Amino acid sequence: MFHPLKLSLLALCMWGAMAHAQAPTRLLVDAKQQAALGVQVTAVQASGKGQVLASATVVTPPGKAFTVSAPYAGQLSRLMVGVGDAVKSGAPLAQFTSPMLGDARRLLNEASIDYKTASAAAQRDQAMLDEGIIPAVRLQLSRAKQEAALSLLKSREAELAASGMRFEGAAGGYATGVLHAPLSGVVLEAFASVGQRVDAGAVLFKLADASQLQLELQLSNDKAAQLQAGDEVSIATRDAKAKILAVSRAVDASQSARARAVVTQRGNLQVGEFVAVTVHAKSKPLAAGQSQWLVPSRAITQWRGKPWLFVVNPQGFDAQAVNVMSATDDMSLVEAAWPAGTQVATTGIASLRALLQKDE
Fold first, then answer.
1. What contacts 97, CB < 8 A, 6 or more positions away?
2. Which residues lie across from 79 on neighbouring strands?
């Protein structure tokens, strides 16, 4: 059994060890050592209440992005647009050649001839019935053949219409047609080159109406719980702003929730790019004594299972554990009791961490 005095001393030592683990650890590093270690510092930025850092993809509103696919197995015989070109609805995109296209045109012409023949026969039988030469049943049979021929003709026309092919100005033969843009927009991607053979259904072009942009935010459950429709979003690196439209707390396969925001100030945003955003959530104010700061994410290091920062002091640095509220690849929002003007190390972190581990 342990003596009560020994137990008290043991408890005091354990408490002291825990306090030491939580308290900042001072590293004595002069200016010459900092230069040798490649350490640079920067001032932290004060953060307003309710700021949430997140990543977002610039997208178009639903229904404003579309693709043009190969209607048949074949090849592009000529390109008429390039990536970045603005096109109007119905504008030609490329000439497409396929034996199946030629066969579809042949079947259409045959259906058109059959319908004309059936229509002529029905007109002739109508005249003969009026003169009393043939019975009415003969005309009924002719009319039935005419309707069947019309149905087949419409089917052939619908097939070519659904393919998006047109034949006006399509030089290159009977099996060549022109692919047209179904809507106005900008060509984002072209997936095939002239002469490349593709299968039916292969995506040839991706277009989007970029007149209005949206952001698709990827969020953790904790971040999603802080947001609501109407929250302002800023993208400092692109001089752009947005407003939250809706927040979905249902997670996907990567366990991420999502939110959509409409861009109110476009700035330099481009469709498809991945950007870091700051959401100004309408959350409750910080409690007394609490403060939040924006720091470069590269300044944070993991030690003892927690995020740490190296805070500048007159003798060197204080290694201090912080609470990371939210983060992106570029910036992190941390909670710490610092005075204004506090500086932290942003480079040479590995060297400072080596000194920190050496002093353990």
1. 74, 75, 76, 77, 172, 173, 175, 176
2. 94
Torsion angle of C-alpha atoms 200, 205, 206, 207, degrees rounded to 10: -130
Compute the distance between CA of residue 136 and CA of residue 139 in angstroms, rounded to an integer. Answer: 5
What stretch(es) of the chain map to CATH 2.40.50.100?
A: 65-208
Kindly report the CATH number that applies to the domain delimited by 22-49+288-358.
2.40.420.20
What Rg, from alpha-carbon coordinates, does the chain have? 35
pLDDT attached to residue 15: 34
Q: Can you name the CATH fold of 52-61+212-280? A: Elongation Factor Tu (Ef-tu); domain 3 (2.40.30)
Q: Which of 162, 195, 193 is nearest to 179 (CA)?
A: 162
Low-confidence ranges of the chain (pLDDT < 50): 1-21, 288
Report how far residue 228's alpha carbon sits from residue 248's, in angstroms, rounded to the nearest whole number.
10
DSSP conformation letters of 38-98: T-EEEE-EE--TTEEEEEEEEEPPTTSEEEEE-SSSEEEEEE---TT-EE-TT-EEEEEE-
Q: What is the pLDDT of residue 184?
A: 87
User: Which residues have C-beta within 8 Å of that of residue 233, sequence separation ≥ 6?
Assistant: 56, 215, 217, 241, 242, 243, 244, 261, 277, 278, 279, 280
- The pTM of the full predicted model, rounded to 2 decimals, is 0.59
For 84: left if phi > 0, alpha if psi spans -120 to 50, otherwise beta; the answer is left
Give the model's pLDDT for residue 226. 79
CATH 2.40.420.20 range(s) for the chain read: 22-49+288-358
272: nearest Cα among 155, 186, 163: 186
3-state secondary structure of 231: coil
Residue-level pLDDT at 283? 59
Task: Pick the closest to residue 54 from 214, 254, 250, 217 (CA basis).
Answer: 217
Return the CATH fold of 65-208: OB fold (Dihydrolipoamide Acetyltransferase, E2P) (2.40.50)
pLDDT the model gives residue 312: 92
